[in-house]
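Hello forum,

I keep getting stuck at the same step: I have a sequence, I want structure tokens, and every attempt I make locally crashes halfway through. Rather than fight my setup again tonight, could one of you with a working pipeline run this one for me? It's a single chain of 978 residues.
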Amino acid sequence: MVNLHLALLSGTKNLKSVTVSFRIPYFTQWGQHVLVCGSEPVLGSWNVKKGLLLKPFHRDDELIWSGSIPVPDGFQCEYNYYVVDGERNILRWEVGKRRKLVLPDGAQNGHLVEFHDLWQTGSDSLPFRSAFKDVVFRRSWDLDVESPLRVITDKLDQQDSVIVQFKICCPNVDKGTTIYVFGSTLKLGQWKTQGALKLHYAGESVWQADCLMQKDDFPLKYRYGKSDQTGKFSVESGSNREFVVDFSTSQPKYIVRSDGLMREIPWRGAGVAIPMFSVRSEEDLGVGEFLDLKLLVDWAVESGFHLVQLLPINDTSVYGMWWDSYPYSSLSVFALHPLYLRVQSLSETIPEDIKQEIAQAQLQLNGKHVDYEATMDTKLTIAKRIFAREKETVLNSSTFKKFFAENKEWLKPYAAFCFLRDFFETSDHSQWGRLSQFSESKLEKLVSEDSLHYDVIRFHYYLQFHLHIQLSEAAEYARKKGVILKGDLPIGVDRNSVDTWVYPNLFRMNTSTGAPPDYFDKNGQNWGFPTYNWEEMSKDNYAWWRARLTQMAKYFTAYRIDHILGFFRIWELPDHAMTGLCGKFRPSIALSQEELEKEGIWDFNRLTQPYITRQLLEDKFGASWTIIAAMFLKEFQKDLYEFKEDCNTEKKIASKLKSSLEKSILLESEEKLQGQLFDLIKNIVLIKDPEDPKKFYPRFNIDDTSSFRDLDQHSKDVLRRLYYDYYFQRQENLWRQNAMNTLPVLLNSSDMLACGEDLGLIPSCVHPVMQELGLIGLRIQRMPSEPGLEFGIPSQYPYMTVCAPSCHDCSTLRAWWEEDEERRRRFFQIFLGSDNSPPEQCIPEIVHFILQQHVEAPSMWSIFPLQDLLALKEEYAARPAPEETINDPTNPKHYWRYRVHVTLETLMKDEHLITTIKDLVRSSGRFYPSSSGELEDQDAVVAILEKQKLVANGQEELQQVVTVTTGIPMNKETVAVL
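Reply #2:
Ran it on my machine without issues. Output:
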């Protein structure tokens, strides 16, 4: 493309040019500016420093930014808007597709063409994510690009005339739909639909039309609308759109009016969540399997759900025992878990003896819970027998060769790792001798066809191939049925994994990830994963992350980002820690020694070493304190103690306790004694940075330590102020920038719909960034993100959220109701305004009310754990409620083994439960799929929303519950209006 500026400078004569003007309303803070940057040199060639800086002006209450450049005839480019500071450093940018600038056909030399745009937010791009584009709004018919109607252009010579091109994006249209624009001028029908301007389809969900207008047509008010096959006309929601052209300051000949998305009733859907291993069907063997998803999708559709959410499904076979049931500790972020393989589907010609072996294994393994080890051993044994029979046929097939070619970059290292893990009997690759250090040459020798163990390597190829086929079959089935399959992106990988072996430079192997104290654990959590080396990852534009997301997108159309706070900052612990309390945020701005000294803080040994006094030992251990002191401590000053060298970390303490014979004379259990010793070693005020001795971090909850309480008042005042500054103030800009460096890469790596798990200690920068990027947050009622609330109020949740009564990391709705009498009573009082005693059991009526609260919330998604849905029926609630909990976050060695006690086949036949759930979804105004996979008539949705009875309906129902369970009718005046 010709650079017009260079051409003009070189003296070229009579070069035809068109002036392009950009105009966008956008409010900025003082010192911020808006600029346009694009693909051509006149707009900076995507170098923001060279983009077109716009100038602001006010029109009524709007701040509008505008600017112009001359371009040659026939000019085209891509562009976007950016917010920058005074030095043109990027502060934020538009999310979504790049804009396209194409000059109108009639634009001539000397014409002014104005592009009137609206800022693209992350939420604007959601309809183009695969969850909506390929599933919810999936069409069995194609929209043909239409030729635009010709507009008479000779009247442009008249003064004060202009051709306006109206453009609107409408991704959700039924067959036979026509889009119109109508408004206050006669050209747009004067608000009569009969005279509305019909738009034509221009591709990529954009509809547009040109209209010749004069000065008298402005200021213009207008709206867009739809007309279906029957001629029924529906108008977009919201206030009128307004359009002003000031002909006294400019004489545009063309105005391209890009109005963003058509404003329709916000799309709201519902879904079900269940781990893959928890599913039960008549076909599976000991655990839920990928092919079970087809039946689960059928049940979801019948129940009115548009989404099925799973936990991570990657291979976690690190230890070869039940510890591997932890689905967030990935052996490989690319490989699928062999646990979910259906061995019956490996071949069409399975011998009778193997079929009998499978049938016998089903009888033995389909018990109350998952028997992880036995199920894995059985499946691998059977799969090896079938592999021995058909390996040459399968591995020489064109289908396998295509799979291998597309996945060999991760498949070969994975297969080699599995072989070495079994050969050395450990996944700790630091114990593999010369093979500890990965290299491509070593890999090629390991997977060579000439190697004696080549069949072992090929077996892992074979397993992954069949897992891919089975999951792909289920995923495509879900898409055709209009059901989103939602996966889970773990925040970490196991330190003994394929990824840390192949890419050690991407991880900080001497650290561990976790979370500071929160709702789940007052002592914090230590997940054991190494933290990421973000600086190293950025060097290839986060290729490892992009590959992960690309792989996930083969199967899923939506995903949950586990612990999204980790992309802002991660809670980092030293590798010798076992608990999660004494960590620091990475990245973060530490307290410097100079900063502390200026505040009068000098004694760093006192503040950074465990503060252990004789009085503390007597208080904690009673008469046994002398034995404890002799075993673990030494007195370095009168009545002051420090840990001995062989037990001065948590891991050393644990190791010494296990090997010590003297512990037998102590009355306390080993677990209790370990906890008490851990309390001693965590009794500090400041944590010294292991890489820079002049940097310090305040220990979380320093007020809880005797070390802090025994300080002088001045030191306490200073440290308390610096503590608050470190955790709640000084990091915000740093954490925002860190997230903006990483999260957009994830979002742009695939077209899946992204949701972020944003529970816990939330920095103030998190929600604005998520909103800017179009990330959907999570709301759990018993863990409110709003300060001062004990319970979240679903009717007040933001639209860009997933709301749920519980999740896999907490007790189920039924268990929560029954585990805490006082909290149950407070919930009853808050949401009913009643002091009556609530029922002790979470009866179906209580479940129905709480589910109704959530399904009627404004949130885009209401997603319910399957256990909470089954609690709607007493027959399915006979099992002790605690047995339905999937995970206990306070226990790092929790056994993830919950299985639904009823088969999917049984649930499909339970018309009463299906009807109850579907009625909940329908009555709430949420959209639901039909059994054919096409959207049903949603007129009922509109009617319900217009009546605005979302909360009242639920309160009336719970009023009846109270009457039934307590015999005392409620006074309507006492019902809390939320």
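Confidence is low (pLDDT under 50) at residues 1-13, 933-978. If your local run keeps crashing, start a new thread with the error log.
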